[in-house]
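Q: Sequence in, structure out?
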Amino acid sequence: MKYREIFCNNCNKVLGKYNVKYYPESKIAELIKDSHAAHIRQGHHIIIRKSEK
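A: Exactly. Output:
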């Protein structure tokens, strides 16, 4: 299965894993704005990367 991971470079940890089939890029962008906004406000650098399991 393919996943998109929201990863914080500053903390070096995965903030969330989302299935590519159910979460398109637009939905991931909304999740970042809603769920991980506090992380961004603290000055952390968040990236979206693809992974397989």
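The helical segments are 25-35, 37-41.
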